[in-house]
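Q: Convert this sequence to structure tokens.
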Amino acid sequence: MAATKTIEIRTEIPGPRSRALLERERRAIARPLMVHLPIFAERAENATITDVDGNVFVDFAGGVGVVNAGHAHPRIVEAVVEQATRFLHTDFTVVPYEPAVALAERLCALAPISGEKRAAFFNAGTEAVENAVKLARLHTGRPGVIAYEGGFHGRTLLSMTMTSKFHPYKTGMGPYAPEVYRAPFPDAYRGPGADEALERLAHMLETHVPGEHVAAIVIEPQLGEGGFVPASPEYMEGLRALCDRHGIVFVADEVQTGFGRTGRMFAMEHFGVEADLMTVAKSIAAGLPLSGVIGRAEIMDGAHAGAIGGTYIGNPVAQAAALAVLDVFEEEGLLERASSVGDRIRERMHAWQERWPAIGDVRGLGAMLAIELVHDPQTKDPAPELALAVIQAALERGLILLKAGVHANCIRVLCPLTIEEAVLDEALEVWEDALVTVLG
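A:
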């Protein structure tokens, strides 16, 4: 492997200071939250994280897709500090402020939805999803919601119910929210294909829940936690036609796919069809809590006063960060950068797939990519233990990776789109070295 230029491993992993913090954590933090890598961050810059022991890692996790514009981008930090010196909070529904209006204007202009649009802001992706469903129910007067196998929409009651993976997100947490139904997601690798998935959805509306009972169909344009499986244009076109036929609100969950991750500002731009509502979060504010719903004015304005809201909706500091994120995208050409980063990673992944049969699939849009590990490329038997071993081997060498997938057998890429070429190449060499160690 080529000599590293950015990664610097000074101690065993975890190092002594991280181990000491892990001991303190066990006595202070609720145990369900102790599921992370065994290193503690000291600082982060662009695509790197330095831990408390001085070890420098390349970050391919990106706070689970939150830092598309990089860690601590100077332009964004400056905007945060400037707004914080003015004021931190008033509650927008009590005393409003310009950053909320300015951000709504810019996002409505960017959203791939025709006609007049409105935006509403919240704190986390799960809130955006729940409020999108509220708006759809109020617009249609119907209770039903259709979500997808493999989908992830959050951990609050309704969004947790909509989330497909049972363990660990739903184990022991019933009863769940009513009127949530589940459709098959189109999957080119494991099936069903687009045509079959559409047929099964149409059959659902005849035999399981009638179309006139359904307020919204909520879909990730590319599954996130479910394994980075992209939908196809054919499926999305059919889904749009089905929603139009039954008067169902089409909701695109762009929480993980949005803000340039797929090479377009929003992943729906890949499919040539429009959603009615979109949910956004994660990279919208570069690490500060912020989410939103953007959509057709007649749906967004149709709810009664007070139907949606919250104390911290659209925090002004987070919105200042979000405005700076949009500036960075424009000034630094991050959409083009996402495509070039994705092309480079995809090329390496395909080379790995040719070398190792255990890499059953390479997939994704733009820089939102994953490999799926299997025991046998014919049977496609999932190999979660191989994915975990590769992630561990990469961490020891200075690369932070995340797993994904219903079977936890995928390794995904969520690196900052601002990553430097040399750092990207170094990270891919480390990942390949980890694959050599695990797969031979």
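The domain at 74-332 is CATH 3.40.640.10 (Aspartate Aminotransferase; domain 2).
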